[in-house]
Amino acid sequence: MYLTGLVAVMVGCTYAAVPLYRTFCQATGYGGTVQRREVRSFFLGLPISLFISREIVVQFNADVADGMPWKFIPTQREVRVKPGESALAFYTAENRSSAPITGVSTYNVTPMKAAVYFNKIQCFCFEEQRLLPGEQVDMPVFFYIDPEFETDPKMDGINNIILSYTFFRIPDQ
């Protein structure tokens, strides 16, 4: 009876491992994973940007994996934000093949120690994107840098952050 229960718990843990690991990475910023949080842009009823003077340059990078016939580029090269301010950026993807293709993107933040403070509110990562032949779409990324970035001594000298996405082709079923 105990062994059957142990096997059932182990099987349950196996199925829960991937979502739990993803949640852990998003909560801690482990491995350059961007944290997901709700944006708080006011302190004492005033915009946080009134209390923060440091400006961070967020640069955008876009890549496609080998064999992926898409053109994938950031709409803008960089955005300047103060910690606590939310920002909206766009990436453009175009299917340059003659067949529909489904892709999924992953992301990374550089330097890795800044990923803890980079918070996505909304993005297209880990969601399947299906583009018809010749179709082009704009995909938004809504984010902010945690105000604690400003006071962390480990972030001294870090004024640039790179948000990088890579699209991978999902094989047709």
Notes on the protein architecture:
- With 173 residues, the protein is α+β, with helices and mostly antiparallel strands.
- The chain has a single domain, classed as Ctag/Cox11 (Pfam 04442).
- It has one helix spanning 2-28; strands spanning 35-36, 42-43, 46-47, 56-64, 70-74, 78-81, 86-95, 101-110, 118-122, 129-131, 136-145, 160-169.
- A 5-stranded mixed sheet has the order 1-9-11-7-5.
- β2 and β3 form a beta hairpin.
- The model has no long low-confidence stretch (mean pLDDT 83).
Record keyword descriptors for this entry.
173 residues; alpha+beta; Ctag/Cox11 (Pfam 04442); five-stranded mixed sheet; flat; copper ion binding; transmembrane helix; Cyt_c_oxidase_assmbl_CtaG; CtaG/Cox11_dom_sf; transmembrane
